[in-house]
Amino acid sequence: MTTASATFLNLPADKRERFIAAALEEFASHPYDTASVTRIVAELGIAKGSVYQYFKNKFGLFEYLVSLATEREMEWHEQHPADPGLGFQDRVRAMVVSGLSWALLEPRWARVGLRAMEQSKEPRLQALRKMQLETGHAYTVGMLTEAVARGEIRGDLDLELVASFVGSMFTGGLMDALTRQSGVELSDLADDPDLGRTLSELHLERVVDGALVLIMQGLASR
Amino acid sequence: MTTASATFLNLPADKRERFIAAALEEFASHPYDTASVTRIVAELGIAKGSVYQYFKNKFGLFEYLVSLATEREMEWHEQHPADPGLGFQDRVRAMVVSGLSWALLEPRWARVGLRAMEQSKEPRLQALRKMQLETGHAYTVGMLTEAVARGEIRGDLDLELVASFVGSMFTGGLMDALTRQSGVELSDLADDPDLGRTLSELHLERVVDGALVLIMQGLASR
Amino acid sequence: MTTASATFLNLPADKRERFIAAALEEFASHPYDTASVTRIVAELGIAKGSVYQYFKNKFGLFEYLVSLATEREMEWHEQHPADPGLGFQDRVRAMVVSGLSWALLEPRWARVGLRAMEQSKEPRLQALRKMQLETGHAYTVGMLTEAVARGEIRGDLDLELVASFVGSMFTGGLMDALTRQSGVELSDLADDPDLGRTLSELHLERVVDGALVLIMQGLASR
Amino acid sequence: MTTASATFLNLPADKRERFIAAALEEFASHPYDTASVTRIVAELGIAKGSVYQYFKNKFGLFEYLVSLATEREMEWHEQHPADPGLGFQDRVRAMVVSGLSWALLEPRWARVGLRAMEQSKEPRLQALRKMQLETGHAYTVGMLTEAVARGEIRGDLDLELVASFVGSMFTGGLMDALTRQSGVELSDLADDPDLGRTLSELHLERVVDGALVLIMQGLASR
DNA sequence: GATGAATGAGGGTTCATTCAT
DNA sequence: AATGAATGAACCCTCATTCAT
Questions:
Q1: I need a labelling partner for C85 at 20 to 30 A (CA). Which of A31, B176, C69, C180 fits?
Q2: Does residue B35 register a pLDDT over 90?
Q3: How far is CA B46 from CA B18, B28, B38, in A?
Q4: In this complex, is the C-beta atom of C119 within 8 Å of any C-beta atom belonging to chain D?
Q5: Chain B contact for A116 (CB, 8 A cutoff)
Q6: Protein chain B, residues 168-207, with a C-beta closer than 7 Å to any atom of nucleic acid strand F
Q7: C1’ E19 / CA B119, Å
């Protein structure tokens, strides 16, 4: 399943973590295509060959980091579970706020997670991107279906379509809104984690609520 | 204003167009950072030095292509003007449909236009991206403001926020939805323009209407 | 004799002078090998081919500039002739001060003159350098011979040797001393002529006198 | 301290020396700006990338060669120490003769050492040049100060000034004199080491003595 | 007489990957 | 298991010079 070799997984913990930290830093601050294995080993002061003992190639390393990022985000969500009694709107709010909180807390990991969604000619990266999109989409459709069943959402909509739009709002739209509100480029967060404090949760909740109102009520005047 | 040298602009039309076609092909199919001047000249069978007679550097060439792409899209819109009497919803629909029609017609150009929005370490590219985002955002806010004035949209919303969300829906969301409905990866359109026919305008309008209903009415059951 | 074509010499004066100014600027601020014909024509906005209509090649242009520099320096000296009654020491002082004054007045021309003395693999440049050295050396030997004849300088010295040493003092040594005294890099003079004012003639004469005392009296304590 | 990578320093001696020899040859026969990494690897028949495993860049390689040159000269001087009881004049003579002997013995190394003093637009080279000049100047001033203290040199002189002039005599002036006496261009020595034999030490000492007499006694007739 | 497009070799530099040790 | 030297293709870019117009 994992793309890391047994060699890597059996490494002494500190060595392994130092390696991960350096690779994380590199892929957080450069798109996949321009991230450099050479820079990673230079930073670490280890042999270049080691990377290829730990991972099949550059892409394998990247894949591994992305899987770690996903794993970390999942763990975070599990540790901050939403109240199962919550309605659709509150549940979405809780999830999104939780996700953003994590991104502010571990901006480098969040950034690497997003790298998997960027454009590239590398076909394996495109495939990865497709898979990630699919997972997210399926999850959203699931949530919407439940909400329809509970009567919270009207039943006359094509949920596949809705999921696409809702998904984009909570990724692209939210990011854009946050950037505009705070003046902080999210891509700079990874380089300077302190910026995260600027984006207090208050700010964050206000923006999320804006999205939710829009989604639930629509723009039309009554 | 333009980033192409007089040398380039005075080139015989066929030569100039052959060059543009090759450069377009390259930047449509690779992100800026990995697009290659070397490949372009190899494809054309011309000397590498020529590129630098035509443009200051790789970025200048890219900038020029992006400006051409924008120009072409503008021209298209001007040739398919929306009825000025249209209300907000119909006007948005007309615009979006028109934009997507163009993208299907000239997928390579559309792709290059989008390249300007991609992530990169190249600072000039980031600046370009920022500018483009700003322009689009301002335009959306303007349209929303007018709609509020005409009473088509309720007045209790933070239009800056709304613009971010609406914007993301009509870029990311729409793309995602279209891809899912048609099974056609938009990134493949540039490589094989024939795929565009698969996405009939009918299809397209259906998806846009889905977005508009969502935006105007919201998800909440009445 | 000259290395400029008739074409160039018959050019309208303003055009010719504009060309010279641009070429001067280029060769004053870059060593011969790295000076660029491309930059010159770019600065001027003229056709590259013109340069090769005016001069055989890059070296021809350089040679011409050097000859102009020499010519200008000669003219300056002729306009500030030393009193023929002056003894050796005063005559040298007058000459050196006059030469440096010129260099401060026309630093770009002075710089180009010195370019001919720099190292390069270009064989024609080496030859030029040799010629210039020879001229200067012969002149110095001449002056020394006269001084010996007049009894101002003792007759037991190998004047060829002395000329080498005196020559180096009034080129390298003087430059070094001036730089140290004033803090002004002479190579920066060409870029920013205003610096010249820092090096008032007073300063200059003091340094020259230092050299002359040394040359005439020697270091030895009596 | 050193600018060579561990990779380079751990290379098998023969390989390392072959590399140094080729780089030395290149930088001895071309000024920094026109020296070519490409030529070096072509000569050696190794991959271009290797150079950049060994050194950060072209300048790093150059810097390393210059430091080796300095080191070699220092070692030579240490192996031919001047009698500490010597007076100023004899000490200078010994030093200069020793330095020139080395230059004749290892002309390529001497040439590379001098390359650091040449003009260039490369700012790092200018800085290097400045540093070297400063070191030499300080050393000369020191020697002069001691000589004054010992009463060998008169005390009414500005030693800073004197150092500039004396310095130039023993670099530029001496070179010029030697070239004239022997007919051998010092720049050709590096290409054809055999020429060195032409310049016997006798010749050399005669020239140095010429300079010393001039410096100590001056030109003025008594 | 002036133009300026085309050339193509050359510049320094970075890269992911391999493989013998 | 770890090393790290070697590769060589690819990168963007600059150059002096030519020659048809």
A1: C69
A2: yes
A3: 11, 20, 10
A4: yes
A5: no
A6: none
A7: 36
CB pairs under 8 A between C and D: 161
At D88-130, the pLDDT tens digits run 889 999 999 899 889 888 989 999 999 999 988 899 999 999 9
pLDDT at B109 over 90: yes
C-alpha distances in Å from residue C20, one per residue of A15, C33, C108, C117: 64, 19, 12, 20
Cβ-contact C137, C164 below 8 angstroms: yes
Residue with tokens 């030579």: D76
CB proximity list for B95: less than 8 A, separation 6 or greater: B77, B82
CA-wise closest residue to D135 among D190, D73, D81: D73
Contact between A67 and A24 under an 8 Å Cβ cutoff? The reply is no
Cα separation, D174 vs D176, whole angstroms: 5
**Mean pLDDT, range D2-29, rounded to an integer:** 93
CB contact under 8 A, B31 and A121: yes
Which residue is closest to D88 within chain C, CA to CA? C220
Where chain A has pLDDT below 70, the residues are 1, 190-193, 195-202, 222
Amino acid D40 reads I
Long-range contacts of B202-208 (CB under 8 A, 24+ apart): B203/B178, B204/B97, B204/B100, B204/B101, B204/B104, B204/B178, B205/B93, B205/B97, B206/B181, B207/A161, B207/B174, B207/B177, B207/B178, B207/B181, B208/B93, B208/B96, B208/B97, B208/B100, B208/B174
Query: How would residue D222 be classed by pLDDT, with cut points 50, 70 and 90?
Result: low
Tokens 């924008």 belong to B70
Domains of chain B: 68-219 (1.10.357.10)
Highest mean predicted confidence (pLDDT) among B176-185, B191-200, C146-155, D190-199:
C146-155
Percent of chain B residues topping a pLDDT of 90: 57
User: Would the Cβ of A46 be found within 7 angstroms of any atom in strand E?
Assistant: no
DSSP-derived letter for residue B34 is G
- The 10 Å CB-count burial string (b at 16+, else e) for B153-178 is beeebebebbbbbbbbbbbbbbbbbb
Residues of C in contact with D218 (CB under 8 A): 214-218
Give the DSSP letter string of D79-126: HSPPPTT--HHHHHHHHHHHHHHHHHHSHHHHHHHHHTTS--S-HHHH
Q: Which strand F bases fall within 7 angstroms of a protein CB? A: 1-20
Nearest Cα neighbor of B166 from A177, D166, A78, D125 is A177
Say if CB B31 and CB A120 are below 8 A apart: yes
* pLDDT tens figures, D145-172: 999 999 999 888 899 999 999 999 888 8
Residues 46-105 (A) near nucleic chain F, CB < 7 A: 46-50, 52-54
For C51-69, the pLDDT digits (tens) are: 999 999 999 999 999 999 9
Among chain B residues 97 through 136, which have CB within 7 angstroms of nucleic chain F?
none
Chain B interface test: which of A168, A175, A215, A216 (most B C-beta within 10 Å): A168
Which bases on strand E have an atom closer than 7 Å to a protein beta carbon?
1-20
Find and give the residue nearest to E1, measured CA to C1': C7
Q: What confidence tens digit (pLDDT) does each residue in A56-89 have?
A: 999 999 999 999 999 999 999 999 988 888 888 8
**What would the two tokens of residue D144 be?**
């002069």
Query: Is the pLDDT at C48 greater than 90, yes or no?
Result: yes
pLDDT recorded at residue C202: 62
Buried b (16+ CB within 10 A) or exposed e, C122-149: beebeebbeebbeebbeebbebbeebbe
